[in-house]
Amino acid sequence: MVKAKAIRVHELGGPEVMRWEEVELGDPKEGEIRIRTTAIGVNFIDVYFRKGVYAAPALPFTPGMEAVGVVTAVGPGLTGRKVGDVVAYAGNPMGSYAQEQILPASVAVPVPPSVDHKQAASVMLKGMTAHVLLRRVFKVESGHTVLVHAAAGGVGSLLCQWANALGATIIGTVSNEEKAAQATQDGCHHVIIYTKEDVVARVKEITSGKGLNVVYDSVGKDTYKASIECLAPRGFLVSFGQSSGKPDPFPMSDLASKSLFLTRPSLMHYTATRDELLESAGEVFANVANGVLRVRVNHTYSLSEAARAHADLEGRKTSGSIVLIPDTDS
Fold first, then answer.
1. How far is it, in rounded angstroms, from Cα 64 to Cα 9?
2. CA distance 223 to 248
3. Among residues 94, 68, 69, 99, which one has the least CA distance to residue 83?
4. Mind giving me the DSSP string for 151-163?
5. Radius of gyration from C-alpha coordinates of the chain
6. If you count Cβ atoms within 10 Å of the first and of the last residue's Cβ in the chain, which end, N or C, has fewer?
7. Is the pLDDT of residue 329 over 70?
8. CA nearest 25: which of 100, 75, 81, 97?
9. Region 37-57: what's the mean pLDDT?
10. How far apart are CA 40 and CA 229, in angstroms?
């Protein structure tokens, strides 16, 4: 029986509930592969599962929705995968905070040699999220005006870069001057420091009162009302996260006043088929390779220090992407 170390959550709560433990792994069954993890992406969805905002299948569980690794074993009869392949995955099954992991082969995509493992681990989930938000949920085109909340965050940074390449005018919100500088580097034409400026007033000023075509909102409770107010008639509010908590219930008349659209997309529903998954991942890796997307791996922690990474993420002490590197101890 193969044994490996992993982060395990036995009870819901703060970062301190994550424990560094040994787990047993069987051999991959039909349709499965086993990978030795080389880099793991940290995402806010991991926090949601740890706290119980999203329900994990059962306790205890290993968090993590994104990783890159080297294939160490393939299930019986499986073709198209071999030992030594470098693959990445994002989404289900949860459990990437581990030295080794068994995955359905159908969720793993090949990582081009031109893309570094840490880059791939930090961009797979966030990058496919950005692809789906910009090209599938609302198709951003040249001439659109876009607002990205948390513009210096992992997904926010990629949204700004990609939307800029598509010819949109981007307004980003951030909490401080340092993050404002990063958002500007990432293609924001206007940056609003929401701790010092009124977001709605600034958007009206920037757009000459016309409002926005789309708002990408990963913050939730603290930003919902401003997001609605900033939209132009027939504008789209794309709510894809809730780092500040769930938005309060609201009347439908909030949308009716300007014939607005509201959607709460999930990446998993837009990459449900193998073809959709390969298309989305392929677009992301191609844009990393050609320089459209610059991946900032600003923070690296040992896997055993995952609790500290979560504490820093929740404490708004991070920008760009966070990657966990598996400890080499057995």
1. 11
2. 11
3. 69
4. TTSHHHHHHHHHH
5. 20
6. N
7. no
8. 100
9. 93
10. 37
Specify the amino acid at residue 197.
E
3 state SS of 177: helix
Cβ distance 250 to 224 under 8 Å? yes
Residue labelled with tokens 């493992």: 117
**87-141 residue pLDDT tens:** 999 988 999 999 999 999 999 999 999 899 999 998 998 899 999 999 999 999 9
Helix, strand, or coil (residue 279): helix
Dihedral angle computed from the Cα positions of residues 53, 57, 58 and 63, in that order, rounded to the nearest 10 degrees: -70
What span, in angstroms and rounded, lies between the C-alpha atoms of 23 and 152? 36
Structure tokens at 256: 């009716």
Alpha-carbon span 29 to 46, nearest angstrom: 27
By C-alpha distance, which of 107, 36, 111, 105 is closest to 76?
105
pLDDT at residue 1, as a whole number: 78
Q: Is the pLDDT of residue 273 over 70?
A: yes
pLDDT in the model for residue 254? 87
Q: Look at residues 46, 128, 117 and name the one whose alpha carbon lies nearest to residue 87.
A: 117
Q: What is the DSSP letter of 102?
A: E
3-state secondary structure of 210: coil
Instruction: Give the pLDDT confidence score for residue 282 in this predicted structure.
Output: 94
- Looking at every residue in the chain, the average pLDDT score rounds to 93
